[in-house]
Amino acid sequence: MNDDLEANLRSALGHASERAPHAPSSLSAHIVARSRRRGTRARALATAAAALAVAVVAGGLAVAVRGAANHPDPTAADPTAVSSAGTAEPRLPGEVSEIPDPVEKVWPQAVRKIPALLPDGRELRPHAFIDDHTLLTGTWSSLEKSDALYAYDMDSAKIRKITDIPTPKGTVTFAFDFTIGAGQVVWWTTRNIGDEKLADLWAAPLAGGEARLVASHRNGEEDADEALDPPAVTGDGRIAFSFRESDGVFTVPLGGGAVKPVAGAERHHVMRWPWVGTAGMFDFLEETTSAELTALAELLNVETGEKRTAVVNPGELDVQCGLTACIGRKAGGGFFHRLRDGSREKELPFVPAHAFGDFVGRFQSSTYRKERKSEGALLHDLVTGRSGDFGVRPGKNGLQIPGPGAGMSGERLISYRLGDQRVVIDLSKID
Description:
Radius of gyration: 20 Å
Strand content: 35-45%
Structural class: mainly beta
Shape: globular
Distance between the termini: 48 Å
Number of domains: 1
Number of helices: 5
Largest sheet: 5 strands, mixed
């Protein structure tokens, strides 16, 4: 598999979460899938691509939403209890006695519907909330190729252009992981210059203006994939970033300047600034321990030095952790949710596909079945036990499970197309 093909494949997979069928899996697009031995990287990538083709999971890392703050203990409510949305305790994970009510009926304060297309026929592609009623949204000039960013006011249906997105010669991964902070929107691309691969970090003012190249960086590891994790904007005006297939966190001033490694974060990836975490290895070729497979098992606050280590029991698989909680698969079968210290463990009533709210702290989306026939997708609140039906049904490409917005500032957003409308869910408005 040559480098260009690898890069194009990664780009397509990275952007495919809205369109791809999702199998029950806890893999996250923002947890690196990599091989321990660099000599097996190409084979590992091919295997990972095959798995991701049926299990693409997109998710921003660890952005706590207002709803989660109102319920600091995400396991306080029994997630298997009968909910007011009409779901009863399932006989098997994902099996319901009644189809849940639509999300807009369960959480009317959090769900909006807007036109899927602009008047000129282009499709709106929301990335994050700028404020409670304004979306950061993009458009594509062709498949996977973002060409511009806009601010879309859902109350007035007015749209304002923020910036055009440059695509330099040699670009192999188009603009991705849009993040908002300090009055700026930040994203990354990758490109080839001869035999060298570069990751480019971009920024533009939310008020509108020309996009600028903040930094071009190669992390110096010969076999390292130059794709980035979702970047963060720090409180002192820097972009914090990390690479998906190699460890280490870096920062660069928003106004441009030298890229510097973050001391003490040599094994880590950007999570929710100032928190960084060890990524965990989903290795398809080699034996690994449960601790090695755990995503974000070790957390570090790079400003205070505080460390948090999650409890992982022998034999547990696909464990993903956030600031307060973890989700994973038990050795004997079934999925669990518990606090990082191992306490308050609950069995999940649905097989998790996406997790939101401090990454895994409160919400999950999943498939459901009724009498093993009717298949759909739902959003489940682990705190209240309520579930809402997204309204999507299997099509020629399988069942598409809505996921959160990509990037650190997009996790409160769930957005998906339903016919000629786009459904927008603001998780921060769920009490």
